[in-house]
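Friendly challenge for the regulars: who can give me the structure tokens for this chain first? No prize, just bragging rights.
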Amino acid sequence: MSKMEYMPVDCLQVPKVLFQMEKYKNLSNTAKILYSLFLDRLKFAVQNGWVDHNGDLFVIYPKSEMKKDLNTTRYGVDQAVQELVKIGKLVRIVQNDGKANHFYINDIYENEMEEESMMTLDRIMANMQMEEREIIMDKMVAASRDILGTIADMGYLDEYETPLTPMEERGYYDEEGNLDIDAVEADGYEFGMDLAFGVLSVYEGKPERVLEIHQEYIEAGAMAIKTNTFAANTISLKKDFSSVREIITQAWKLANQAIANQKVFVFADIGPIFTEDDSIDELYQIADLFLSLGANYFLLETAQDDSVFRLAGYIKQKHPDAFVITSFAVDQDGYTRKGIPLKKLAAQSKNWDIDAFGLNCMCGPSHLLQIVSELTVSKPLSVMPNSGYPLSVNGRTLFIDNETYFADKMVQMYQQGVKILGGCCGTTPNHIKTVAKYLQKTNISTEIPRITIKDETPQAESVKNPFAEKLNHNQKVIAVELDPPFDANYSHIQEAAPILKEAGADAITIADSPLARARASSFMMAAKIQREVGIPTIPHFTCRDQNMIGLKSILVGGNIESIHNVLVVTGDPVPADNRREIKGVFSTNSYHLIEYIQTLNQDIFQSNPYFIGGALNVNSKRFEFELKRALKKQEMGVRFFLTQPIYSEDAIENLKLAKQTLDVKILAGFMPIVSHRNAVFLNNEVAGIDIPEKIVAQMEGKESECVQQISLNYCMELVSKIGHDCDGYYLMTPLKKYQMIVELIKRIK
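First reply, four minutes later:
Bragging rights claimed.
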């Protein structure tokens, strides 16, 4: 046929990717053709206006037509549709009140790109340490905030804007009610770091305004000023250190120019470097630079942990006569952002060569006054609260005018023994002026104080913990895991717990929504079992579902219920299919949570401290890394480990190595198999489990009861090989078959 004779035909386009990609190989050819027909039918959706309220196109395709087009049966049509929905995830069905279904067709190429990128990210993050994973998550959150800001700028979030505040009376809003940033920045200090930093940066801002601000505070009555270098580091400024050096040098010159010949102290201000990496080396560099410039007074402020003491020690070693204040930022409960109690840091301060122990930021004057009134410290106290708690207006952080209230609280702090008074975010020259006025009738020394407050640490009586006591006295213990219910029916636990106790179990462990499927609270179930059955419990505690507020709330509640033991784990991630609707919190990781609980033990749980456990994966293919993580957890406060189920010789060898390496108690994990199908499932779908093929083969074709006996016999074979390489046993109940665990306990005993 010649070109002239060629007659184009209406062709059905079938995406090549359906035949090329591994994930679609299980789709039948019928399903692949049906997907192509769906794509072709989208043109009718456009023509007929098949669009839902969200503006998304859908396809109407009666199954009778599918049957005709595919030349197959009704069953064949149903099978093909289900393949596209469940296997390929290429089609989504929405019921339409008895009318023809709406079919939403996913773009296979867009779908593949999105899924592949997420899979790639998942694979990469799965191999990361939690701390590294947090950095990535932080970047993702920051990107999300930028997107929300763009949406707000488009006008779609007007209903969420914070109402205007009394600040508009100051003339910082234009005729349309928008914040005039230029007007605010002209003041520099008025409304906190977010607005002022651009001005206060001598590198890109207005150095003459920095000089003016210093002078305004001095005229208001300040006896000391600090250099505008709180965030002068490579991370905050996103500059190299040569630029940071220039900023610090210029800031030092401006501060000293401001005091002229007045008797006003200039403090070299060094803030924290917010990074996961060890930033102490750069902080040493910054300190060296200030020392070279002639600094004699240092304010190390907004500290989060005891690393600031090392920085102080470094400065005092270089310059023994330097005056150094270490100042910590804590919340209303007296904890830093890293969960470290101020009382612990105050106690540590006596072991370091510092001249004053301070508080600044995060809290307003009222809360810092309360914290100060309960604080015992062996160093002079310095307190610099925020003026109050800020408002967010148009994405900016603003503080209210409260000079009189602020001054009144500062006087009360002075009466509590605080000798160095100042202000942090939101405090203006007017605040300082009012404080000075209120203190005029009091004899205030113009010298830097060097006094000592008596250190008194109360001792609390301890409460007995039978589970911990047995382990600590080298008695082998048995802990049995029961899964909490998906609903309010906990009859299987109610039935199993007393029988397990009678059989010889020393504790019941309760999982915390394993596989990220919502179950009854592990702590509430643990409290109920402990109260009703009288057996110690060990609730699992994950980082997945709570921020630090929620985590502390649960811990306090558990302590009230006399929960003594806790197993800290990161928690299974939310399944990929649910991540669009359900997000894991992971505001901390297992290391930091362990450390946090340990600090709470020393602070508020002294009479009933938590006996902290951790998870140990003896099935890990790279056990040397697992062992390193275990050592770190031990350092943070873990006192016992529960292992994953042991089925192999490799797992036993790893257990022996762990016992030789770790200085804590280890409970060897066992989970009996209930059926051949169960064994196949565990081997193929549960990560980290490797049941020997010979054992699986023995179970094939056997009745469930016979399989269970094979499994129990194999468990006892492994138990006999462990010998003295464990301190007890962690028995996981399979599929509510607690009678198997009862028999296993009897055999072990």
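The longest helix spans residues 130-153. The CA atoms of residues 202 and 247 lie 6 Å apart. Your move, everyone else.
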